[in-house]
Design goal:
heterodimer, A: mainly alpha, abc type-2 transporter like fold, 2 domains, 4-stranded mixed beta sheet, about 65% helix, about 5% strand, B: alpha/beta, Rossmann fold, Alpha-Beta Plaits, 6-stranded mixed beta sheet, 4-stranded antiparallel beta sheet, 12 helices, about 25% strand, elongated
Chain lengths: ~375, ~325
């Protein structure tokens, strides 16, 4: 290994990256865009509020009180509909996913039950809904729970089963706090994998590798400079992501020695996979497709975006054999939960994986006879 | 002088197979120190495979290749710092400038004192030093490739088809650079399918066809020994001349719309033909007598044309 040669190669890679402005912008901007979009979507998950169209055909003090109850805890922002219009027709025409209709006679039935103690007096509220809508069932579920509460209050008996929420964690974490380590892991993976595959296949296809094979640069020099370059790009990207996360979402993450360690292991693991891919895929375009085929399932299945609990059982098993899962969980353990033992465990697993694929990558990298 | 000192390259019974394909078939030759050696042949003849085995990019199937007194299959790391290579279809890093590219390759050879400006001057790229590689024309890229091949002041320079794909003007520019290399006394191993290139630059030409070397020697010797005839080009006023020449027993062929080409064995034949034309009252607009060139030698030896792409005029 010759450090002067490694340095020369590193300078060329960094200059090429810096001068390719569009590629540089997207390399840094893509994970930031993901953070901004997902962070904004889920930042106020606890205070989520839905629009709810209500048609009050009764138009009495009692029905108005019911509407007020729906608005009470902020779950719904009520939009009142004219009683004269056809609710079903209106729902269809205006592409609404739910209209709640309070029927005429609501107050009469209410008084019968409350004042006259008539047990059979009841009222039926109608949901006009679009079953193809994803959020409509959540809205109906919330409405049902509000109505169940009202029914229970009217019965006058205290509830038998009660529940109390106590967080098992020392402090309350927001979605965005858990999301950022996943995005860092995913970004470093894509940078290392695509960086290795694209650069190597392109240079091989153009004949640059063949020219380099007639110089004293060795395979080790080349691979080491590639690793260093990927690590520098990964660090720049991670710093940019963290700055945006702190500035926009005020995330509460712990930055310690585990972060660079997991970045290094992430880089080694996916540069190794990239080197193995480069060996078997000849054309630059097919290499990018192959890298996509590996990275896309990995980013969705390994819990970078979604909690693993949302997945069916067999997919959770799959997640546990994916290397990115251990980087995700390791970064969360160190940056969010401050769980040193878990971080150590995850780093050991991804460390062994990185070592194995990196050695295989070195073996797979052909340097001398390139065709 | 010992054999090793005299011969920079020694190739002995070299064979290379790619599966069923026999790319190089049991060839042997030597390259003397300080000479320009051209391996001439059409596409697919085995030129690149041969040069890439000698300059250590590839490994042979069998045979022995010695470069600078060392076995190329065993001493790659000792050989590489002492040679310069312009591989076929050379390319470099798109966004790196001419000067930076030369500095980069110089660092790969761990050379602290490479005369980058001297190299830039040699390949005439002084006004392009800050230009990125991707913005250079084909000819400029090749000239930069030649400069890169010289960053380590090599004892032997390998140039694999240095002018293929270039227009005639760019090709002449590259030839100028190669002629200056020749003047510096470098041992140059050149592969080409352009006749003019080999004739202009090479001290020794080896003609390769279908993996075999079929003739070797200086261009003059090759022509002398393989094409012992004269080529007469006549531009007649009318069709009468063609009939006269045929009647004399020669086999004239139309060279283009206006000229007739006749192959004759002796200068006497030329005199006889001109007298007969004059006696018959026919006349000529022009007349040219010349020795055959390498193209014709190649055609005679292999029965196939070297290249459909004319190399263009020689610079001088």
């Amino acid at each position: 290994m010759n450090l002067r040669v490694v340095g020369a190669n590193l300078i060329v890679s960094i200059k090429s990256f810096y001068r390719e402005k569009t590629a540089m912008f997207f390399t840094i901007a893509f994970p930031i865009i993901l953070i901004l979009v997902f962070g904004a979507l889920f930042m106020n998950q606890d205070n989520m509020s839905f629009d709810l169209c209500v048609q009050d055909l009764d138009y009495t003090g009692s029905s108005a009180q019911l509407v007020k109850t729906l608005e009470l805890d902020g779950k719904f922002k009520v939009i009142k509909l004219d009683p004269a219009i056809n609710a079903a027709q209106y729902t269809r025409n205006n592409k609404l996913n739910l209209v709640l209709m309070i029927p005429k006679g609501y107050e009469g039935s209410f008084l019968q039950r409350m004042a006259l103690n008539e047990p059979n007096a009841s009222v039926t509220l109608t949901y006009f809904y679009d079953p193809s809508s994803i959020s409509v069932f959540m809205k109906m579920q919330i409405l049902n729970s509000v109505f169940a509460g009202i029914n229970q209050n009217m019965s006058g008996n205290p509830p038998f089963i009660r529940s109390v929420e106590t967080s098992a964690l020392a402090k309350k974490y927001r979605f965005v706090d858990l999301f950022i380590p996943g995005i860092i892991a995913m970004s470093v993976m894509t940078l290392s994998l695509f960086g290795t595959v694209n650069v190597n296949t392109e240079l091989r296809q153009k004949g640059v590798i063949r020219k380099l094979s007639t110089t004293p640069i060795t395979r080790t020099d080349w691979i080491l400079s590639n690793i260093l370059y990927q690590f520098i790009v990964a660090v720049i990207s991670t710093i940019a992501m963290l700055l945006v996360s702190y500035a926009v979402f005020r995330v509460r993450l712990q930055i310690n020695a585990w972060l660079p360690l997991f970045i290094v292991l992430d880089v080694f693991a996916f540069v190794g996979i990239g080197m193995i891919l480069t060996r078997f895929v000849k054309e630059a375009q097919s290499a990018a497709a192959a890298a996509n085929a590996i990275s896309f399932p990995m980013m969705f299945l390994s819990g970078s975006f979604f909690p693993l609990e949302m997945m069916p059982g067999f997919m959770r098993t799959i997640a546990r054999i994916l290397p990115l899962y251990y980087v995700n969980e390791g970064l969360r353990a160190s940056m969010v939960f401050d769980d040193q033992m878990a971080a150590l465990r995850y780093s050991a697993i991804i460390g062994v994986f990185a070592a194995v694929v990196f050695i295989l990558g070195i073996i797979a990298t052909k340097w001398e006879e390139v065709r | 002088m010992t054999k090793e000192a005299e011969h920079t390259i020694e190739v002995e019974k070299l064979t290379k197979r790619y599966g069923e394909l026999l790319a190089v078939n049991d060839i042997s030759f030597n390259v003397r120190k300080g000479e320009v050696f051209a391996l001439l042949g059409p596409n697919g003849a085995g030129k690149t495979t041969t040069v890439e085995i000698i300059d250590t990019i590839r490994t042979p199937t069998s045979g022995k290749v010695t470069l600078l007194g060392m076995d190329v299959t065993k001493k790659k790391h000792d050989i590489v710092p002492r040679i310069g290579v312009l591989p076929q279809g050379f390319s470099s890093f798109d966004r790196i400038t001419v000067r930076e590219t030369l500095q980069y390759y110089s660092r790969l050879f761990c050379r602290m004192n490479t005369d980058i400006d001297g190299l830039i001057g040699l390949v005439n790229l002084k006004d392009k030093t800050k230009e990125q590689y991707k913005n250079l024309s084909g000819g400029l890229k090749q000239r930069l490739g030649i400069a890169i091949a010289l960053v380590n002041d090599p004892e032997v320079v390998f140039l694999d088809e240095p002018t293929t794909g270039l227009d005639p003007r760019a090709r002449r520019e590259v030839w100028k650079v190669l002629l200056s290399l020749k003047k510096r006394g470098k041992t140059v191993f050149l592969t080409t399918h352009y006749m003019e290139e080999a004739e202009l630059l090479a001290d020794t030409v080896a003609i390769i066809s279908k993996g075999k070397i079929i003739a070797m020697g200086s261009p003059e010797v090759l022509i002398e020994s393989n094409a012992n005839y004269l080529v007469l080009t006549l531009r007649p006023v009318d069709e009468k001349v063609l009939k006269i020449v045929r009647k004399m027993g020669f086999e004239p062929v139309h060279d283009n719309h206006k000229d007739i080409k006749v192959t004759v064995e002796h200068t006497d034949d030329v005199r006889k033909m001109l007298n007969t034309i004059k006696d018959a009252g026919a006349s000529l607009l022009s007349l040219d007598v010349r020795k055959p060139n390498l193209e014709e030698v190649f055609l005679k030896l292999t029965g196939e044309a070297l290249s459909n792409d004319p190399a263009g005029e020689v610079a001088e």
